[in-house]
Design goal:
There is one protein chain. The chain is mainly β and about 450 residues long. It is built from three helices and 25 strands. Strands 1, 2, 4, 7, 8, 11, 13 and 14 form an eight-stranded antiparallel beta sheet that branches. Strands 16, 17, 18, 19, 22 and 25 form a six-stranded antiparallel beta sheet that branches. Strands 20-21-23-24 form a four-stranded mixed beta sheet, with no helix packed on it.
Length: about 450
Amino acid sequence: MLRGTHLTVIAIILSLAVVSMAETTVPDRPATAILQKAPQTSLAEYCELVKPVYGAGNAVLFSIPNNSARDYYNMRFRAVSQRPCTLNSAQIAVYPNSFRGTPDLQVVVWTSLANGLPGAELARVTIPYESLPKSFGYATADFSSFHLVFNPYGSEFHIGVTTSDTVNNKIALIGDDGSAGTGASGFFHAGHWVNRKDSGLVDYNYFIEPLLCHGAPDRDGDGVADLTDNCPNIPNSEQADADGDDIGDACDFVCGDANHDGKINVGDAVFGINYVFKQGAPPSPIFAGDANGDTEFNVGDVVFIINHVFKQQASPQCVPRGIMTGRSKCLTSLADKTAATPYQDCIVYTYDGSSLLHLKHTNTMFNCCPEETYAVIDIWAHKITIVEEEALYNGGCECLCLYDADYDISGVQPGTYSVEVHEVYCDPIIFNIDLAGAPSGNFCVSRGTK
């Protein structure tokens, strides 16, 4: 299987192919057909897709309705990203020379049932005849307004086509020669869905391509993907960075400066009193009010500020911050996450007793060749959350790997913490640590069972 929308594969097939007759008579068959890839919008968001491998032989023409009165053709797709994915649009290769009348093109998205056939209809887009290509090319259906979000990893859906008037009109689209044999194609006939391969028919793949299925992680929901967000935990769509230090102004605060005036003084204590006892406005961001570094904002921070301002006691301590400091090479290559033999997925931690917490995640799973791996780390209210991510700008490889990843979190005070490590392809690891009583240790879960 190929990952991503490899429309260039189709263009190569069609540039060398003679369109042959299949399931209907075609009065005009071009000797050659060159199909250009439709333009795509460049998005920072991404989501990989598993789609059929197309056969390398002649391209084949299909019509709706055909001689057997088939009035839908569809292809099944499977999202393979751990992130939620939003289907933005789809492209369909059409052949107007074989249209009859003035057909529109209806493009439909369905859920996928356990038997691999289409289920409930999710969306339908009608492309009028006037907007269809006038020669051999792609028609594009825009699904962005439907907000079709598919659950992570393994979620399947179908995209199919028909025309609204199958009595007076006929639409024609293109497929491969059936040599790939993927079992992902089907049609609607006599009141029910049919899978071509399961029914013993030639396993043609129709040239239907999902495009811009995206879902880059955006933890704070500000429209800027975490990978490029200069403040990934606090919404800041404008990405303001007054001092140019690559830390967004929303995250670039003075510890203990609850009222955000750039100074630590009695005004911050008054601000804290209003917040704690009078339900006043919270600090913006709330992390700025945490003067004593316990990852909470409460009366203890007010007392800390008063002691600092009037008794010259300790300065406020910043909220802990963490980064991924390194990642190993691929330790073990896997065909997919279910093919792994059982293994231990572990978090090993060491604490220096006052500030620095080091975590080593052994046997975490990423794609075999990611362009980048990183993590979004959040520490608040004695909870440490690490969300591991990968960037697969070029689609990645057709395998997964086990790696070791290292993290350093500074400014951590002794105490008990809940730790959550969210992996890209596996369920999260969740456990508790007591840094005062046990400054080192590990927690493991068993993986690799189907």
